[in-house]
Amino acid sequence: MSYVVAVRALCEFTAKQGDLDLRFTPSPTAQEGIAGHATVTGRRGPGYQAEVALSGEHGPLLVRGRADGYDPAQNLIEEIKTYRGQFASIPDNHRHLHWAQLRVYGHLLCAQLQLERVNLALVYYDIGSGAETVLRETREAHELAALFADQCQRFVAWAEQELARRGARDAALATLRFPHADFRTGQRQLAKAVFQANASGRCLLAQAPTGIGKTVGSLFPVLKAAPQERIDKVLFLAARTPGRQLALDAAATLGAGTPLRVLELAAREKACEHPDKSCHGESCPLARGFYDRLPAARQAALAHVTLDRAALREVGLAHAVCPYYLGSEMARWSDVIVGDYNYWFDAGAMLHGLALANQWRVSVLVDEAHNMVSRARSMFTSSLERGALRAARAAAPPLAKKALGRVTRAWSALDKEHGAPYQVLPALPDALLDALQAAASAITDHLAEQPGPLDPALQRFYFEALHFARLADSFASHSLCDFTRDGRDSALCIRNVVPAPFLKSRFALAHSTTLFSATLSPWHYYADALGLPEDTAWIDVDSPFSSEQLAVRVASRISTRYQHRAASLAPIAELMASQYRDRPGNYLAFFSSFDYLEQAAALFAERHPDIPAWLQGRRMSEAERAEFLARFVPGGRGIGFAVLGGAFGEGIDLPGERLIGAFIATLGLPQVNPVNEQLRQRLEETFGAGYDYTYLYPGVQKVVQAAGRVVRTMADHGVVVLIDDRFDQPRVRELLPRWWGIGRAPSAG
Q: Which UniProt keywords are listed (predicted)?
């Protein structure tokens, strides 16, 4: 069995040296890089060969890649690198890596064409000026063969170790047994569907209720399928920390006694040891000499079966390397990677980039996937604010200040043309966009000439402008361009409505993607919005719970519509008090907004001062949220007032007597406002279901998530009171879980 390694990966493993340096330096975009390569190769003669596929073996290694170009007439192989700014600012350790790659290609070419020697050229193409700086050397074939052998030999011990571990991993996973005595109700059904999706290389949408063990029920079948389907990596993606911890625990249980390597990717701000320092060797001691110490740290990391945040920190500090970037390196050598959605789905997602570069076969598990539509929209939305432009211009150096002045004038013209508080523009504002791109180029040129930190206000606007410009390049009917005015300030936004066009490539690259949640109904909403393939499978998993465990009652004589809220407060207070006195204990009461919550809580406290109550506050800190949840103790009594869709509407676990009931005084519909109305209109044009996709489905999904806090285990019993007459409508009822037995709430009074 050969170990396949790309030329770039081989050289990055063996030839990287010196500091980790993440000071922002202006580099070409991917599109500019492609265009730059095309420009250079287009300048060459008629016999010039571009993108030359090369491969060669050394022991167990199969090394392959594509050389940028070869000119047979000159016997010259070229490696093309695009850059922006001063050639002298390219770090020496970067050039060292570039030479290493080129010499490997030189050896592979000599071996393939049986050449005695070859001319090598590193071509650095300046995107700004179009000029080429060429570094040349001539090497004998035997020299290059020796260099190649040395590179491979330094990698081969690691490769043989990884090959042996992969073989042992696959052998262990082929005989993997479920870690518990038996499957829970619904868990086997979920596991079978996930296994079949991986066996057939399809995507799966799985609606699976809380309490069946979704994490183990999805991870086990993927690992079981991995040897047969030659799956290299399993990515478990979750929106919240508790979901990621469950995945780490499940992977540790399933992988016990096997060589399965599990990695947690934490957010950089949480993993950073020196938040007051910049990510380069002149500032941070953990960046200084990072690549020189990385081999020892990488080897030491293998002693940990689970490389969670704590383990990465331990290894990183022991070897004086940055724990966060050690984690990024170990992603190449791990089997199960647990992290946030953005590591795979974002425009510049790290794991997606690595999978493309290394041709990994990946199975993706997306937990709490009902969050994906809103999260994906935010990934492909960008907003610019006039106040931020003013702050950036005030801090800009002279040339950038002049360019930002042109942006200001173009923005003023836009202000005059569009006087309404909110409106959707018929097209992108070309004059402003041209000025914005020119300003970004001016700031880029400044950085190229004078590398160093930018003023924070200027840097923020610069990054926002780059993101805005990238989205402008792909602007189409999947997004809106809207303009909002608020006094003297205004904002221009490219607002994604349908993320499907951006996500289709992610689903296409993965061998299989399973999206699961307790609330994925109706499935076609998620399939349409996310761009899932046409052959995506759907399963609605049986619940382990029965209607005897959860009494669901509808208070259909109360309307919580905005115009009826004042009239709803008194009957809601009496309904809650009646239920509480009938069965004292811990309850959550959900409302559609903080205003509504505060009005309801004030009247409730006035009428029933003997019933303990506590409120979710606006912008609560992590400690304040923990304090709110700490009130829910076994044997406790009282009502916690919370906002539906907020921190306490999902992702919290209060089993047994910690929570025995919930009042949901809202249908959960998003606010009717100009932005949502534009979303409704665009979704109606795209899918013919504007109201449902904008309001109804997202609203009811939040209701079901909140209700799901009550019954968490087979021993739990509780009550959910749905307070609004619209819960009686058939179109709403059909979106509620099948296992609920829905009755009438007694009239308040």
A: 4Fe-4S, ATP-binding, DNA damage, DNA repair, DNA-binding, Helicase, Hydrolase, Iron, Iron-sulfur, Isomerase, Metal-binding, Nucleotide-binding
How many Å separate Cα 395 from the centre of its chain? Answer: 32
Strands annotated E in 144-254: 204-207, 233-237
With cut-offs at 50, 70 and 90, classify the pLDDT of residue 575: very high
Whole-number Å distance between alpha carbons of 549 and 62: 59
pLDDT of residue 25: 61
Q: Is the pLDDT of residue 23 over 80?
A: no
Question: What's the confidence (pLDDT) of residue 747?
Answer: 64
Q: Is 627 helix (H, G, I), strand (E, B) or coil?
A: helix
Q: What are phi and psi of 114, to 5 degrees?
A: 55, 50
Q: Is 721 helix (H, G, I), strand (E, B) or coil?
A: strand
Q: Which CA distances in Å does 189 have to 181, 216, 248, 330, 435?
A: 16, 13, 22, 34, 56
Angle 154-155-156 from CA coordinates, rounded to 5° = 100
- Phi first, then psi: give them for residue 160, nearest 5 degrees: -65, -40
Q: Which of 502, 496, 710, 480 is nearest to 590 (CA)?
A: 710
Q: Where does the pLDDT of residue 445 fall: very low under 50, low under 70, confident under 90, or very high at 90 and above?
A: confident
Residue 66 has pLDDT above 50, yes or no: yes
Between 34 and 235, where is the model more confident?
A: 235
Burial 308-324 (b: 16+ CB within 10 A, else e): bbebbbebbeebbbbbb
Which two three-digit tokens encode residue 447? 């950085």
**Alpha-carbon distance 327 to 334, whole Å?**
10
pLDDT digits (tens, 9 = 90+) for 206-257: 999 888 899 999 999 999 999 999 999 999 999 888 889 999 999 999 999 8
Whole-number Å distance between alpha carbons of 645 and 647: 7
Query: Would the pLDDT of 447 be above 90?
Result: no
Q: Is 13 helix (H, G, I), strand (E, B) or coil?
A: helix
Instruction: Say if residue 450's pLDDT is above 80.
Output: no
- Reported confidence tier of residue 419, pLDDT bands at 50, 70, 90: confident
At 749 the pLDDT is: 47
Q: Dig out the tokens for 62 from the structure.
A: 């199969």
**Section 497-503 average pLDDT:** 98
What is the 8-class DSSP label of residue 642?
E
Report the chain's terminal Cα–Cα distance, integer Å.
77
Long-range contacts for 299-302 (Cβ within 8 Å, ≥24 apart)? 301/326, 301/330, 302/261, 302/333
E strands, 248-381, in order: 262-264, 306-307, 336-339, 362-366
Q: How many CB atoms lie within 10 A of CB 619?
A: 6
CB atoms closer than 10 angstroms to residue 730: 6
Residue 68: per-residue pLDDT: 96
> Which residues face 638 on adjacent strands?
586
Residue 38 Rama label (left phi>0; alpha psi -120 to 50; beta): alpha
635 confidence band (pLDDT: 50, 70, 90): very high
Contact 669, 548 (CB under 8 A): no
- What distance in Å separates the CA atoms of residue 646 and residue 537, rounded to the nearest whole number? 30
pTM, entire model: 0.91
Q: Tell me how far apart the alpha carbons of residues 264 and 259 are, in angstroms, rounded to a whole number.
A: 16
Q: Are strands 638-643 and 613-615 parallel, antiparallel or unpaired?
A: parallel
**163, amino acid identity:** L
Asked whether 273 and 681 are in contact (CB, 8 A), the reply is no
Position 475: which residue type?
F
Contacts of 238 (CB under 8 A, 6+ apart): 244, 246, 247, 338, 340, 341, 367, 368
Is the CB of residue 512 less than 8 Å from the CB of residue 206?
no
Residue 119 near residue 77 (C-beta atoms within 8 A): yes
Exposure letters 660-670 (e unless 16+ CB within 10 A, then b): bbbbbbbbbbb
The reported pLDDT for the residue numbered 87 is: 83
